[in-house]
């Protein structure tokens, strides 16, 4: 490195559909963090480099900076299309993609996603969290659940993702609670009993889900259902439907949850009713550990 | 009636969440129709009278005009809250509501809805279509299906609605195809085979619905699924989930469909795979016949 020294050894980037997060990494730890709402969804291809520089410029020196990014930044609508590795595969086994940049200080790699032929499925971003979890738990054999906008269930064996399924639970919850007629019946707040009952209800009769959603509206109109109970039941019905469909993944398995605290709380509660006691890992920790694992792979191949 | 004669004998109004439709009725037939996008959803209470006058003013004379309205105009957020009659009940059995008006020529009645205590459910507007269907088919005994934003299934016996259930199928289809990640994978067009396969798929394994939605996105990314096939499968999965949940309603029953042609086509196709051959009625015809039946009830009680 020539001239002015950089603040960071390398930079870790988590670039999803709605948010961009970057961390300055030094001596193996994040020493600074910056975020913006310039997610992949609002950017044209030419906008990615300025959006990134806006956040990380203070961390650059005059030399080249190694930057490792995961998430939807690698999608077809992203900065550069990174490949998908076909499962079974190690979560970081595939070649990373390199976007074209104007600023020669930027040495960027975008992590590849995973795909599954049948049933057809894809992931981008979660493979990095899985790699991070496995770097902290190398002997883990079992099932990982990553709840979120598009929840993922992944079967892990011998360090590989064997199979996985995606559920649109978080997106359905957001659409139904904010944009459907149910928005008139839900409010903030949490009713733990209503949640647990709804999970059990959806799991025991998943075929009735389509009928049970409007019941929330009707009960709030004619039976005094509170907004908090309606919201909790909506969450429970959708998570219950996910658990019913994902049963082959978790039944009798060793399950770990990776996600934000509030969401993994809800899934842990739901799974406990089924007799499971999932271990839990923080999503940001897993992402950072996965980006560090990817960085280590890059160092191996370039040394 | 004094002075200038009115163009209409009475006026029929279908006032839903998104649209307002009015018909000038003379000698038992609609002789003029007017529509606007001033649905209940965009109006404050003071806006209803001007929105209606804008459409029907040319049909008024100097005397009082009898106007009969159905739909969400009678909801809590509407012009006047009309009651709900508890089932089992005749579809037009309950007292109608009368909104306050400034223009003394307007003599308006808003038709009451129906409610069900357990499982909790409500309808507003469909009771009028049911009444219209029954006025044309007075001996009908069986099940009516009214597909739409909020599809209704109603069990009919001896002229009464015995029980009913609401499914948010149309609203889910709209949200998922226009506002979720699936919007990137669907286009206009129809693939009849994809629809029928998806209906069967959802009906045979309704618990897997939550997993099958994202498969549409994944197949379009990695397996060349066309936009028309994705849209048709989305429709089939949601209608199949509705049919799975509504099975106690239609299994072995005499079923009639009331709705717009394209929608009843889809439901009829789906039900035929199950061995049913539903009769079909047009939604507008049913609405007009129901409003006429309500008008006849008003005449009976005021004569």
Automatic annotation (TrEMBL), chains A, B:
GO biological process: one example: D-galactonate catabolic process
InterPro entries in the record: DGOK, DGOK_C, DGOK_N
Keyword annotations from UniProtKB, A to Z: Kinase, Transferase
Pfam families in the cross-refs: DGOK
GO molecular function: 2-dehydro-3-deoxygalactonokinase activity
Name by which UniProt lists this protein: 2-keto-3-deoxy-galactonokinase
Source lineage: Bacteria, Pseudomonadati, Pseudomonadota, Alphaproteobacteria, Rhodobacterales
